[in-house]
Protein: Glucose-methanol-choline oxidoreductase
Organism: Methanocaldococcus fervens
Amino acid sequence: MYDFAIIGSGVAGATIAKELGEKHRVIVIEKGKHPTYASEGKNVEVNYAYGLGGSAVYSLGNAIKTAIKGYKIEKDIYKEIWEELKIKAPDDDFLNDIDKKFIELGFEKMEKFIDFNKCNKCGECAKKLCKAKWTPLNYLKQFKGDVITEFDIKTIECNGYYEILDKNGRKVKAKNLIISAGGINSPRILKKLIDDENIGKNLFVDTFATVGGILKDSYLNKDISMLVYKKYKNFILSTHYSKLLFDEIKKDYKDVEEKDIVGIMIKIKDENSGEVLDNDVKKEITKEDFKTIVRGVSKATKYLYKLGVDDIYTTMPRGSHPGGSLSLVVDEFEVKEGLYVCDSSIFKEALGVPPIVSIIALSKKLVRDVL
């Protein structure tokens, strides 16, 4: 029997496993194997990945420190994260000409957990594994415990300990259970253990859209997305090459090439208005969210005009950082004795910025202050 079973091998699960594995017998349970994208939701499409390492395997490597409502994170935890992930901003000579133009317009360099000396500027951070970028797989390699993959949970029983059974009949027994399957799947798993009508409610997704147009030889497609950014009250703007934007522009300009597309992402701090259902996600844009997106589009459009872009195009709003879906149920990590949740699902409100370092910090806090 294990001391701890952790469901999910993404940012939270991998962090907790690495920390707990030093002193306890721990197993990580993962539904998938190779990271695979999933998409849910009809109004705002919500994208995430499952498999070893979770969504962060395809992250853009962004590191922004921000306050987490309801959770005080000590400074030494962030210091440790910056050292472990070797977080830094790119040197000036790493920047492309388009990045430098944005900096002239008031943008700043994004700190990232990317080794810029190893980065070949393929522009495919969100599509493939990369040796230049930190991912939860790095923590899993340091983890002194067991990992089981392709474990699709059927039932979870609690009889003084936790017995997790998958659809193929495999069993895992543990004294304690930590659910870290992310903003979409953690509430679905917790439903197997407790009955609470608030499970799945209060969902946010850091709704984003990309606006842009044609800027000859800008080569943003051969750059790390979000390499430079500008922060506003409830949204950020950042450089972002979008294939969806390219496809939209190509409808009008048949001969346009990917190297000629320049885009700005507007990522907002959206309201907790969504809900995770058993087989779907319900997320709409509220009036306040719409106002924020419009403000962001207006700001972004002005910058694009200054760069020389004439015709402006936009993608549909999407979400890629689901969270908050257990914030009405779980407080301070613990559901009941021996049962914990730790991941973006317990954030009380949207961060409005890339959340990976915040999730790592939250996970380290769980291990040090609670377990």
Observations:
- The radius of gyration is 21 Å.
- The longest helix spans residues 287-307.
- Residues 2-85+134-202+322-369 form a domain with the FAD/NAD(P)-binding domain fold (CATH 3.50.50.60).
